[in-house]
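[Discussion] Sanity-checking designs against the backbone

I'm trying to build intuition for which residues belong where. Below is a structure token string of 141 positions. I'd appreciate it if someone posts a full sequence so I can compare it with mine line by line.
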């Protein structure tokens, strides 16, 4: 499912992307198994200054994070941003620009000033790009 938007009025550019060597999250469960939610986001033709978001929204606490398994895009000379979109308000929190066509590992962190709630995970093609890009991202909690 592909959703895109170029409306900039609700954007706040303060998300933080953190590279970590171990980005697993442990959660307690009744049978001792650690649950892991994994999902993908992709678009074969993401336009300039547009974004594609996850088909489901996820509850993220203020200061919470989503782990990045990997992201690839082409052409690799075009840049992307990774973000979180508040499902209720459409307020967007974007990381700094990513370059080079891929990122393996790390996380996107919801700022402490952002409210806890339902968020979509999103990938955006930045305004300085000159062509549409193909993107694929795999994420987990």
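Best answer:
Here's mine. Compare freely.
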């Amino acid at each position: 499912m592909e959703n895109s938007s170029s409306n900039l009025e609700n954007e706040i550019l303060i998300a933080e992307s953190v590279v970590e060597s171990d980005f697993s999250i442990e959660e307690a469960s009744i049978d001792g198994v650690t649950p892991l939610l994994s999902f993908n986001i992709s678009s074969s033709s993401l336009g300039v200054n547009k974004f594609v978001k996850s088909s489901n929204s996820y509850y993220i606490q203020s200061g919470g994070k989503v782990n990045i398994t990997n992201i690839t895009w082409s052409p690799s000379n075009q840049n992307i941003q990774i973000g979180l979109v508040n499902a209720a308000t459409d307020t967007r929190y974007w990381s700094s620009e990513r370059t080079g066509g891929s990122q393996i590992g790390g996380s996107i962190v919801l700022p402490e000033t952002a409210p806890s709630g339902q968020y979509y995970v999103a990938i955006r093609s930045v305004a300085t790009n000159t062509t549409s890009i193909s993107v694929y991202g795999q994420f987990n909690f």
